[in-house]
Amino acid sequence: MKNKMIFLAAAICCIGYWSYLFLCFHNPVLTAVSVLVCLFLLWLLYLQMSRTERIVADFFEEINQNLDLLFNKSYESINNLNFLEETLMARINQKIVRIAEILAAERKKSAKEKMSLQSLISDISHQVKTPMTNLKMLHETIQHRDLPDAKRTELLKTMGSQLDKLDFLLTSMVKTSRLEAGLIQLKKEEKNLFNTLAAAVSGITVPADKKNIPIEVFCQDQCLLNHDPKWTAEALFNVMENAVKYSPQNSRIRVSVEKWEMYTKINISDQGRGIPEAHYGKIFQRFYREESSQAIEGIGIGLYLAREIIQKQNGYIMVQSVIGKGSTFSVFLPNAF
Amino acid sequence: MKILETKNVKKYYGNGDNCVKALDGVDLSVDKGELLAIVGTSGSGKSTLLHMLGGLDIPTEGSVMINGKELSKMKEEQLTIFRRRQIGFVFQNYNLVPMLNVYENIVLPLELDGNKPDRKYVHGIIDLLHLKGTETRFTNGLSGGQQQRVAIARALASKPAIILADEPTGNLDSKTSQEVLGLLKMSIKKFGQTLVMITHNNEIAQLADRIIRIEDGRICEG
Amino acid sequence: MKRREKIKNNNKRIIGHLAARSLRTSKTRNIFILLTIALSVGLLGVMTLAYSGTVVERNKEISVMQHVIYENLADPQIKALENTKKIDFLTLAKLGQGFEINGGMVRPVYYEEITEPIQTNSICEGTYPQNIHEIAVNRSFMNLMGLSASIGETVSLTFLDGESEAFVVAGFLEGGEVTKVYPVLFSKEYAEAGSQLKDIPYQALCRIQGAEKQSEQAFLETIRTIGADAGVERKNINENNNFSSSLTMSAIDVLVIAGVGVGILLVSVLVVYSVFYLSVAGRIQQYGQLRTLGATKRQIKALVNREGIILCIAGAVSGLLIAWLIAYCIKPQGWNWEHTLILSLVIFLADLITVFVSIRKPAKLAASVSAIEASGFSQYRQNGEKESKKILRKLTPLNLAVMSAMRNRKKTLLTMISLGVGGVLLLTGAAFIVSMTPEDYSRQGFYQWGEFVINYDYNATQTVENGNVGIQMNNPLNDELIASIQGINGVKDVLSFNKTQISYDYKDEINATDSLAPFTRENQENVKDALAEGSFDYDEMIAKDEILIANNTVADEIFGWKFEMGDIVTIRYFNGVEEVEKEFTIVGSMDTLSEQLILDKTSFTLLNKMILGLSIFIIGFSLINLINTLITNIVSRRQEFSMLQSIGMSNRQLMRMIQGEGLILALGNLVITLILGTGAGYLMVYLLRSVGATYMHYRFPSWYFMGYVLVTLLVPVFVSGASVRAFHKASLVDRLRKME
């Protein structure tokens, strides 16, 4: 439309020019020559315009075709698009290829999530199996056999502890699965980290006192940080519980908070047996338990849960350890994001 | 899904008695979205391998494939454009352009491709990397950590499919290293990228999904 | 799928941005390039604009001049001319016999009161002389006569024939404050009846219709035809040479300007090239960095080109502005916007092309940097040498300098040559300056042989019977006089030149007057060299009464014919006793150089000024080149120096080393300059002499050379000192860190 207007304007100008020439100079030859020249120029203008139009139409057609590939999910063909040229089309192709990649990655991610949910379910069924079987056996024994009272009381006590274990297991499982399935949305708020830390420590004081392990906390009274207090406390509690569990009697646990440029670092150091360097990555896996720590009660879900919670807040956990001397877990929480 | 694959990559310098085998048959494949750490002592050929992966250098033998495209078959110009559009580099020595200010450095690869930088996105990265307020400063006035973060921001700004980082924390103290690494890890998760990182620090390497070790130009542990 | 037209990716924006940033960071280089470009453009501008100013000014003058004068006119011829349609304007005038009064030449003249559009000395005070006793003169004339300059004063004039007449001053003429010839304007009445003018025929000053649009040839044709139709002889047609030559642009001037212009541009190419080359070489890492980040070769090339264009535009604009100012100051009358703008545009384009040519290679070098090279680029790489001959060489700072120079043999040599070219040009320019002293120049003509010329009094030659010969009969310039002059303290030599007055008949010229001069047997070789046509034998000339014609081309111009070889000329002369008539045969003709020289004198002044300007320009260039080379050499190796310092080299040692390198370059440069520069200077003077600049004598420009030696040796010392001091603004660690 715009092109047509320009062309029309040019044509009108030409006609005006011709009449001006003819009326002012009364020279037919001059007029004829200028008419020819103008017509030639108009023709060139027309050619240029139609060329531009054709190029734009081709360009549009090509984009359309390539987007169709994306639409039809023919990733093979998308991968074969040329995006290594110094042309506009190549730049668009490059974006199309990246979109295809990201779509593929997202598909893969959701598949992976499904898988992990499945494995979580199988893990749960596996983990629940033992206490369930135990409970069933105990229940049967109590119901069908004539037992002395003392024995019965003892069995009921065992049953209670199994139920406790099952309860703990199920609570953890529910937490994990809700976290993993994305049912829990972490709510980040500008809150005092000191309070969060206090909540975590208060949960661990009883078992720590039992082993006579003092917990020293170094934290400013006012340490505002953007985080989800409830779940962060849960994560820190898990790390600390882990530390208490693997520490000998009369050792000490030290918790310190440092505010760095981008992250706030919470160090939790124990004087436990330590973790071999090769296992640094593995201890955060679900249901992973050190070969040497089978004797200690636990299911290997605490650190996993802690890492999930921290990562969901754009933070991360690292571990450093010296065998026989102790380990330091560092929780990094971002200051601003 | 493999994004990066090398087959029997060799790189020899010189010939005869003086022949130095920087890489001697490396087979490697990296999945999409993976964070791979390459560790090894200095002179083991780590940097050479990274250069090969980024198309900065051409292998004496063997092939490097990215997304199913073989780099050695590309023309010089294609390779350059490939680098510009697909790869973000984080160099050990930052490689920031001294005549440009922080913001300009960050958007340079975008501009080289003729893109108008997506201001919101770039400012997002700047916020993320705590570079707010330094945008108009020249890079030689920044601290090492800040320069490293600018280099990372630059690698992220063009949303490349792959980030290749050569000792991204090499010049940083352990505190800053941990911070920078956390950032890298988070960003690749956020932007669906693949990160291949060279380091000689095991502590740093623990954040990777996978660690490979290079010794005398060969991969010695997968 | 059909072949589609691809739309190019538009990623030029960043190039402009990078170029601007890069320009902001390399100020030294910018200054050098700006200076070079501004200098070359300024010089070109001044040269062409001043020339155009001269032309415009001349045209302005010509536009109020006559195109042609028809001389020696009788009444019927005047009538005929007045009736000629092609003559736009005609005014009559008379020019009487001049005479001397109190050492000043006085010329009786008559012209009409109103001579618009031809400019004559008009009356600025008083009135045009009306009656036979009234005259108008210059104020300075009254001074000459020792009278007060007021209207109504009576002046008594004694003419050549000894008669005295008294006149009343009716008015004063414009101008003539400083003059040797004093015109005296008489009334029309006097012109018709006065003793001095009545026998003098009228001449007609004419402007020809449409003459400005004709070619020189067509113009001459026209005025000759008009003359012939009115019955005016060819020799009486006196065209205005200024006007006729203005019809065709002087080819030689244009050639000189073009030649010098191309020379300036070539030198600029050299300097801009070397400045850019060194700057690019020093930034290889930066280009490699950009390549790594995804800049294509084309983008890098565009970046370097863009920088060049920006510098070129900035330099050219400032150069042109300066040139405008200077040209305006030189020729304020000749200022013409149209010419100025067109010439400026041409110069601008020429310089743009120059810059493009100069940065082609550096841009290519920058583009050829591969990404991986960025980190490892070192200028040492080109060298094939792998091992040193000795395990440990002496490692003093000076030895290190020598080693560094030897290790980069190619670069060292290139730098020396680049500097050498500047030096050679400088020495050539300096040779021109010292070979042409103002004294040499002002001594052109007779004065090249002496300081005083003694000749006959003009009034005497006009009044004595038989003119010149009459005096020669009783020659006051005799051997006795010559001997007594030679006796004066301080007189070295007296040279004598002889000629005699004759009249001759040849073709349509009857009884035309001219002069005859002899040449000696010893001189015949020189004469033979100047011979343009024919040949002669000295003895045969005496035996057979043969003569040579000097300045045949002048004859052609005046009469429309040439003296032909083998023709007979009848010559009459007074031999002291009686009038003799004798026939001579023409055997040769010559166009003497000195005559040519006078003809082209204006061109030569132009040429001189230009070469002088060029020489100054080249001196500036070679200095820019020298300083730039040294600074770049130091700056680009800053990191290497920091490394040396980090392992314990002291500032003093470092400075000694840098100075040593500078001195090695300087020495090589001086050797090249001395050998080639002397040769080139000599050759140039020789060539100029052969085209007529006989006033030039080659002299070795020893003072300039000494100055150059001093500068070449001192500049490295100062530059290295300043640079080393500049290094210390940054800490050693910072400098080292940038190495990676």
From TrEMBL, chain A:
Keywords: Kinase, Membrane, Phosphoprotein, Transferase, Transmembrane, Transmembrane helix, Two-component regulatory system. It comes from the Bacteria. GO terms for molecular function: phosphoprotein phosphatase activity; phosphorelay sensor kinase activity. It catalyses: ATP + protein L-histidine = ADP + protein N-phospho-L-histidine. GO terms for biological process: cellular response to phosphate starvation. InterPro entries: BphY/WalK/GraS-like (IPR050351), HATPase_C_sf (IPR036890), HATPase_dom (IPR003594), His_kinase_dom (IPR005467), HisK_dim/P_dom (IPR003661), HisK_dim/P_sf (IPR036097), Sig_transdc_His_kin-like_C (IPR004358). Residues 123-337 form the Histidine kinase domain. Its EC number is 2.7.13.3. One of its GO terms (cellular component) is plasma membrane. PROSITE patterns: HIS_KIN (PS50109). The chain crosses the membrane at residues 5-23, 29-47. This is histidine kinase. It is found in: Membrane. It is an enzyme of class 2 (transferase). Pfam families: HATPase_c, HisKA. It comes from Acetobacterium bakii.
From TrEMBL, chain B:
Coiled coil: none annotated. One of its GO terms (cellular component) is membrane protein complex. Signal peptide: none annotated. GO terms for molecular function: ATP binding; ATP hydrolysis activity; transmembrane transporter activity. InterPro entries: AAA+_ATPase, ABC_transporter-like_ATP-bd, ABC_transporter-like_CS, MacB-like_ATP-bd, P-loop_NTPase. SMART domains: AAA. CDD domains: ABC_MJ0796_LolCDE_FtsE (cd03255). It holds the Pfam family ABC_tran. Residues 4-222 form the ABC transporter domain. Transmembrane segments: none annotated. PROSITE patterns: ABC_TRANSPORTER_1, ABC_TRANSPORTER_2. Keywords: ATP-binding, Nucleotide-binding, Transport. Belongs to the ABC transporter superfamily. This is ABC transporter ATP-binding protein. It comes from Acetobacterium bakii.
From TrEMBL, chain C:
The keyword Cell membrane applies. One of its GO terms (biological process) is lipoprotein localization to outer membrane. InterPro entries: ABC3_permease_C, Lipoprotein-release_system. GO terms for cellular component: plasma membrane protein complex. Residues 260-362, 614-729 form the ABC3 transporter permease C-terminal domain. Its main location: membrane. Pfam families: FtsX. It is a multi-pass membrane protein. It is found in: Cell membrane. The chain crosses the membrane at residues 31-51, 254-278, 308-328, 340-359, 413-434, 610-635, 662-685, 705-727. Keywords: Cell membrane, Membrane, Transmembrane, Transmembrane helix. Belongs to the ABC-4 integral membrane protein family. LolC/E subfamily. This is ABC transporter permease. It comes from Acetobacterium bakii. The lineage of its organism: Bacteria, Bacillati, Bacillota, Clostridia, Eubacteriales.
